User: Fold this.
Amino acid sequence: MFFVRRLDGNPAHTRRNVFAPTNVTPGRRIRVVFKDGEVLAGLARGYRPDRAAFFVMPADPRSNNERCFVVAAATREIAWL
Assistant:
């Protein structure tokens, strides 16, 4: 589940899974690969392998996504960066 800034998004934005040097959001860097192949890089504060779900804040601060609620069953791979 994605929590977004604007419902219409920003078609001019190029998606990047790169951490901004000025990003001061607390959490550990993580990369999530979903079963459909989508990749999300971001910061997670509550991830543990035994949990069914957790939140990720996207690495790209200009992303339309403010945060993502990740259901572990929908992922193919989760790795610390």
DSSP finds no helices and six strands in the chain. The CA atoms of residues 45 and 74 lie 19 Å apart. The domain at 25-80 is CATH 2.30.30.100 (SH3 type barrels.). Strands lie at 2-4, 28-34, 39-44, 53-58, 65-71, 75-80.
